């Protein structure tokens, strides 16, 4: 248990996963490369709210804590630079669990090229994690929500609803039965659970878009990509972008992929899982048609699912209700 | 209660205290001024561990959350740039309490010239706060723990034990009686409680030291200030610096101020409160004699309390035991 380690013991546990910058009251990260801006984001994860022993191993908790923050950097078009992690732990937390969290966190950072530069470990009656991520973006190239324009096409970088399906399978093992006879059933179930436990930040997407833009000589120099990630659900992302940009959206409903397996599990709720399930950590982007079409050609599983329209009609998004949208404080 | 607000309502609460940078998945901070490095620190505060309704109002919780992080920046010689705050809240938390935290946080940031650039608010069974602060420091001028040298004098920037005394008075109102007849008793009690509730990050000290260094022409260009803050206690700070620098310390016991009022309240434990009480958020610095003496001349309440010696003797610090040192996981 961590209470047997004491603070110095906990520091020793933490140390192998840290960059050499750790050891003072704060980490000195160095200077920014010329022409780049600092990007900062923070996310908190609570035991029983954002993860639980039933659905997420310690390693997965660590991975998720890193990945959700890296997804925010990806959503800004930023490249990871460094991260801090603060852990609140009951004194009875098994030491293995804490090491597992650091290991999963480290694995994700290594995969996506970041480093752990600071932390805090404190006593708490309930497990909580807080991660802050830093990245850099070329001057003027940050992706933001408020720059969507009428005529832009709405692109998603992958399928939605998979994380929700994985979570439901983890919470309700009896759902497996709905997939009796489903082709490659075990692999499909594993892959859905994995979507929930090990989300993939789409750091690959913004560099690809800028390569496409550089090929297309008619793009003005001050061009900005509009978008965000779909961590709180696909519908939420579209609504947030529309609200921030003062525009509306017309969705091509037939283009919104509902994976066959989700239809098997969710039945008549399948479209809700896709729209409101959340935690898929794809990017939702608004791009001029030529860029959107080239991107979708090159990026497997991406799709054009609608277009940005003026906000003349009553609805922000034609035909879309937000009642099911994820509310952290729903009880 | 926050559960009546929902996520959008909570965002509205948060918004007035944020810089304009907030509104996307992450904040774009801009580029660093030339010749400056990024400094990053994080601290987590837990209800019942680091604060409680008995000792700390919501405003004080917000202030403390900001101040402990600013103290880490001060300890690095850095100037504040921006901060993020993540809040875990039970759904039944009063909205006024949350607003109070933001107000106290904001008050501290305004006073010391920082800005709130990001946050996260999530449901949690227990109140927790996590703050990450970043600042900038001139290239090569970061204060660190590992550069103390034999012959350096050990300087504290103020008195120790006051925060501990304030905490004890808040927790045990009957201690007031020990100060019966004490001159200006009410003011003294208020001031001690304030030391605990509203700690002052010593951001004023590093610039003063660099001004002194610039006056003293014999200081080599690559000179580095060694030190840290005394958040975990005066004794802990000295031990950490000695361990990191591979040196020992000889303390001038008679120079370690024990405020008369602490002797009244703590009686025979007074020296323990001073050495191990913690949370005074002063700086403990190791400086060449000429700089140390000039600093102490100019900085009220600062003192030279010892010198750095070789680690030849058995004890790290002559005559000092670390048994009482603050351990977050002590039960």
Structure description:
Two copies of one chain form a homodimer. Chain A contains ten helices and ten strands. Chain A has helices at 6-14, 58-75, 95-112, 162-171, 185-197, 205-215, 234-245, 260-266, 270-276, 289-298; strands spanning 27-30, 36-46, 79-89, 116-123, 128-138, 153-156, 226-229, 248-251, 283-287, 303-309. Chain A has a five-stranded antiparallel β-sheet with strand order 7-9-6-10-8, sandwiched between helices. In chain A, strands 2-5-3-4 form a four-stranded mixed β-sheet. In chain A, strand 3 (79-89), helix 3 (95-112) and strand 4 form a beta-alpha-beta unit. In chain A, helix 2 runs parallel beside helix 3 (95-112) and helix 4 (162-171) packs across helix 5 (185-197). The model of chain A is unreliable at 321-331 (pLDDT under 50).
Shape of chain A: globular
Strand order of the largest sheet of chain A: 7-9-6-10-8
* Structure classification of chain A: alpha+beta
* Major beta-sheet overview of chain A: 5 strands, antiparallel
Strand portion of chain A: 15-25%
Biggest protein-protein contact in the assembly = A-B, 76 and 75 residues
Rg of chain A (CA only): 21 Å
Low-confidence stretches of chain A: 321-331
Element order of chain A: H for helix, E for strand = HEEHEHEEEHHHEHEHHEHE
Oligomer: homodimer
Number of helices of chain A: 10
The overall pLDDT of chain A, averaged over residues, is 90
Helix content of chain A: 25-40%
Number of strands of chain A: 10
Q: Compute the separation of the termini of chain A in Å.
A: 32 Å
